């Protein structure tokens, strides 16, 4: 630059300004082009392609920050509400109305439970099995023909890991411990044969021996 004359510096500066002006103009044109491109429409999940399966879920939860187990009209901060939300979010059920849901047991606000058996019936699942315990074809069932390659990579013995799927979206204080396929006639409430309640008291500064004597 030291060796350039003032006229040359002016000319170089002018060329640089024109270059950046052209570049800025091209960026504007590109931005307009991208904004006018048709956006990809999100495909709606097609439940009719999948069988449903009748399953039982075993759930544990820490309830001190929750408003009880049962769903309530005036609160979404319940165990049931969060489970329902997780089931719909993961596309395991299409809606609560079509899930044929039943439960066994309940707790009040701030109470925890370490093994509640929950039943979610007629799950609209992406089922890898078309036969087996609790598997059935829903009304309007219309599966697509599988590709030959998918038959090799997806053994028929596999099934969705419902516990893992639900735990991936549930809050940490609610965990699905296990799931099991059950017959379509199974009902969590009416097929319950016995219930056992155990209460655990942290000792802290309490005199539990005196408490038990009374």
TrEMBL record:
Keyword Magnesium attached: no
InterPro entries noted in UniProt: PsdUridine_synth_cat_dom_sf, PsdUridine_synth_TruA, TruA/RsuA/RluB/E/F_N
Gene3D superfamilies in the cross-refs: Pseudouridine synthase I, catalytic domain, N-terminal subdomain (3.30.70.580)
Alphabetized UniProt keyword annotations: Isomerase, Membrane, Transmembrane, Transmembrane helix
GO biological process: mRNA pseudouridine synthesis; tRNA pseudouridine synthesis
Membrane-spanning parts: 15-34
Top-level division of the source organism's lineage: Eukaryota
Molecular-function GO terms, alphabetical: pseudouridine synthase activity; RNA binding
A Gene Ontology term for the protein's cellular component: cytoplasm
PANTHER family referenced in this protein's UniProt entry, alphabetically: PSEUDOURIDYLATE SYNTHASE (PTHR11142), TRNA PSEUDOURIDINE(38_39) SYNTHASE (PTHR11142:SF5)
Name of the featured protein: tRNA pseudouridine(38/39) synthase
Gene: Pus3
